[in-house]
Design a protein that fits this description.
Blueprint: H1 10-33, H2 40-54, H3 56-65, H4 72-81, H5 84-98, H6 106-118, H7 135-147, H8 151-168
């Protein structure tokens, strides 16, 4: 929320997702408007490589660990590959080496989609690789709701929203 309170409320979290949603709509509209100019092999490779390197190794390790912690390397891989900075540098290198092309729009489409549709942002080391509410966060939410004048309504509606989102979110655990 600010430089001294590094957390989001359910409302600010949804607003951030909405901002990424707008970016997703713009990038997708541009991609679709130039569909006949897209080179499909580079587009597919650029879209998939982010998760092949950044998500799948951690997802496999997480499932194999059966509740135990996995190495930080998997979080780093995810964060590096799902960084707008990294993918911006990849796009710049691509333009420099091969020229600009519409296939590069799959990079923001992928990242904006992860954030807007699935609510997946960068992964801190202290949290599980796959989303699950941390007990310390549950305690914080309860205390914050108790101290906030409108906190209970916000937190209760957040619980309802999270339950609804979990039903539709393929990555929710």
């Amino acid at each position: 929320m600010d430089a001294h309170n590094l957390f989001e409320t359910p409302v600010t979290y949804r607003l951030i997702r909405l901002e990424y949603g707008l970016g997703l709509v713009v990038a997708t509209a541009l991609f679709l408007a130039h569909l006949d100019e897209v080179r499909w092999l580079p587009a597919l490779a650029l879209f998939v490589y982010i998760d092949l390197i950044g998500y799948l190794p951690g997802a496999v390790a997480h499932r194999r660990a059966r509740g135990r912690r996995i190495g930080r390397t998997y979080h780093v891989l995810y964060n590096v590959m799902h960084s707008l900075v990294t993918q911006g540098l990849v796009a710049l290198a691509w333009v420099w080496l091969a020229g600009a092309e519409w296939a590069l729009l799959v990079l923001p489409i992928h990242l904006f989609g992860d954030r807007a549709l699935f609510g997946n942002f960068l992964k801190p080391f202290g949290l599980r690789f796959e989303p699950k509410t941390h007990p310390a966060y549950e305690r914080f939410r309860a205390e914050y709701a108790a101290l906030s004048p409108d906190g209970m309504d916000t937190m209760e509606s957040a619980d309802q929203g999270r339950r609804l989102a979990d039903r539709f979110d393929a990555r929710a655990t």
